[in-house]
């Protein structure tokens, strides 16, 4: 019976070993299968990442092109604005130069006109023998106001038509601001 016991014990050990090997192999196959699945998932994620990377590069290239074209357009517009400003400054200088020349000419002309008026008007003599009295009124109770239409008054109206303020006109023509206001008001009343 001893040999049977030995055989039986050997058989039992063999069966146990065989079961152990089968279980071990199944576990190993299961782990390999899990690892393979995880590797497949990682490969899919890497593929998606490559796609996102190429899309991002394309978007960056497109935005760079758009930015470059926008910057060049803005630079061109800035250049045009600078050229326009330079042209306007040049025009302004020439207009100022012309107006200075006109004012010098007008001041010379007005000086000559004053000399002529003094020469022929008998300056210093009173033209009105009833000095200090009011001049007779004409017709309907309103006095006819006459303004000396000399060159400085014409120049006042011209400057006012150009849009200058009364104070600027007074400075340019070297007159009082109130005088300019009064003359322009009277001129406007005569025109309307």
Characterise the protein shown here.
There is one protein chain. The protein has 2 domains: 11-101; 148-192. It is built from 4 helices and no strands. It has helices spanning 2-121, 151-161, 166-173, 177-191.
In a few lines, what is going on in this structure?
80% of the residues lie in helices and 0% in strands. The protein has helices spanning 2-121, 151-161, 166-173, 177-191.
Write the layout of secondary structure elements.
Blueprint: H1 2-121, H2 151-161, H3 166-173, H4 177-191
Helix pairs in contact: 2-3, 2-4, 3-4
Strand content: under 5%
Count of helix runs: 4
Total of domains: 2
Determine the mean pLDDT. 80
Distance between the termini: 151 Å
Helical residue percent? Answer: over 70%
Count every beta strand, where a strand is a DSSP E run of 2 or more residues: 0
Given the helix and strand composition, which structural class is it?
A: mainly alpha
Largest sheet data: none
